[in-house]
Amino acid sequence: MATYERIPNSVMQTTEYPETGYQEVSTNMQIFHSLESEVRSYIRCFPTVFKKSKEAYLFNEEGKRYIDFFAGAGSLNYGHNNDQVKRAILKYVQEDGILLSLDKATTAKRHFLKQISSIIFEPRGLQYKIQFTGPTGTNAIEAALKLARLVKGRSNIIAFTNAFHGMTLGSLTLTSNDLIRNRPYMNRSNVTIMPYDGYLGEGIDTIAYLRRFLEDNHSGIDLPAAVILETVQAEGGVHLATDQWLRDLEQVCRDFDLLLIVDDIQVGNGRTGTFFSFENAGIRPDIVTLGKSIGGGLPLSLVLIRPAIDQWKPGEHSGTFRGNNLAFVAGAEVLDYWKDEAFSQSVIHKSDLAAERFQTFQKKYEALNIKVRGKGLIFGLEFPSNNLAPKIAEHAFNLGLIIEVTGVKKNVLKFLPPLTIEEEVLQDGLDIIDAAIQATIA
Ligand SMILES: Cc1ncc(COP(=O)(O)O)c(C=O)c1O
């Protein structure tokens, strides 16, 4: 049985619970606070020691159960310890399968390549070469930036307001967030930030704005090599680009000879209801970055490259952990979910259920003026009132739900459950959000 100690927020270096000034820390968490760097983050919002997980549930050491509306920030789209994945991994290890191969050929990698080609590319009429990068999403972004600059022989890149593409230095140049970008280790070289869809207010065409800068060689903006975007800006507060905006952006890229890079690291892998987030818009990005759930819950990231621009020389971009074979095994398994339409339809169905509940929250808590944005199984619930979202998340945690607060103002609850979540568990989690809102405003 854990005992608890009250630690001042100043020691915890947290701003999560400023109104109390203290946070209770169980003694079984002490070592994380004393030994782990101050950079730790989610542990401050979800202060417990997790021990087990299954499907959409996490369990702490005391056996308390939490519903997971966070899904490893989108890396557990197919649930925790997915049975199919678990079986395949155990069998592979049991048979002494290769674990790390850099970029040598292995049977596990060949199977993964065959699966992605036959299940994802062929039915969609897509032709991409696949670059395996280091295992985190930001590695894929770094590679995509380098390749775009190499191919076009230009250094500027256009990114968007409220964008997030990872935490290594190249990725940070694309990121708008003031807290992580305006630092002495950073410079803003070679990136121009332009307004995302809706950023300048309703009815203002941000594509026309971008086009104006590009067509005028006295605008002060260097012709870029590429434009990079998220079709749903997850970390930025769940902002969605319309399909029309995406098509218009693609047209701008074609008109000015720019590469179009879609960062599908968080909202690819079925998060929006289709495997790629841009499928309904009908666009054909030159480069797509994939990460998180592409490894079936294990670290794996990819850059999909239109064959004509795959102009790397052998070894020109490398990294030791490009051959995480356990992730190939797991990733190949979860691609089976996309063999027919059923999985996609189930995501859309659960999306409708969630959207319905969010509408009832809007009515029930009218005074809070909750704004709801999302599609598939990513939704943002924006609470304009200061500090409400973190308090709701804290109450939700105490009631047994893991949900993240996001957005540059930290006022958006980000709903991101595993795509495989059962309807009943989904509804239970939504009940907890309801109860947490009530507890917060009580
Ligand atoms: C859209 C997007 N791109 C890139 C990244 C970086 O991925 P990673 O944290 O695996 O480096 C993230 C992470 O949240 C992301 O959401």
Care to describe what's here?
With 442 residues, the chain is α/β, with parallel strands linked by helices. It folds into three domains: 1-41, no CATH class; 48-81 and 342-441, Aspartate Aminotransferase, domain 1; 85-338, Aspartate Aminotransferase, domain 2. 36% of the residues lie in helices and 17% in strands. It has 15 helices and 19 strands. The protein has helices at 9-12, 30-35, 42-45, 71-74, 83-94, 107-124, 137-152, 169-174, 178-181, 206-215, 243-255, 325-335, 342-364, 388-398, 423-441; strands at residues 4-8, 22-26, 50-54, 57-60, 65-68, 129-132, 157-160, 191-194, 226-229, 232-233, 239-240, 259-263, 287-290, 302-305, 371-375, 378-382, 401-402, 404-406, 412-415. The strands form five sheets. It has a seven-stranded mixed β-sheet with strand order 6-14-13-12-9-7-8. A four-stranded mixed β-sheet has the order 3-4-5-17. The protein has a four-stranded antiparallel β-sheet with strand order 15-16-19-18, with helices on one face. Strand 4 (57-60) and strand 5 form a beta hairpin. Helix 5 (83-94) packs antiparallel against helix 12, helix 6 (107-124) runs parallel beside helix 12 and helix 14 crosses helix 15. The longest helix has 23 residues, at 342-364.
Topology:
Elements: E1 4-8, H1 9-12, E2 22-26, H2 30-35, H3 42-45, E3 50-54, E4 57-60, E5 65-68, H4 71-74, H5 83-94, H6 107-124, E6 129-132, H7 137-152, E7 157-160, H8 169-174, H9 178-181, E8 191-194, H10 206-215, E9 226-229, E10 232-233, E11 239-240, H11 243-255, E12 259-263, E13 287-290, E14 302-305, H12 325-335, H13 342-364, E15 371-375, E16 378-382, H14 388-398, E17 401-402, E18 404-406, E19 412-415, H15 423-441
Parallel strand pairs: 5-17, 7-8, 7-9, 9-12, 12-13
Antiparallel strand pairs: 1-2, 3-4, 4-5, 6-14, 10-11, 13-14, 15-16, 16-19, 18-19
Pyridoxal-5'-phosphate (PLP) is lined by residues 73, 136-138, 141, 164-166, 230, 234-235, 263, 265-266, 291.
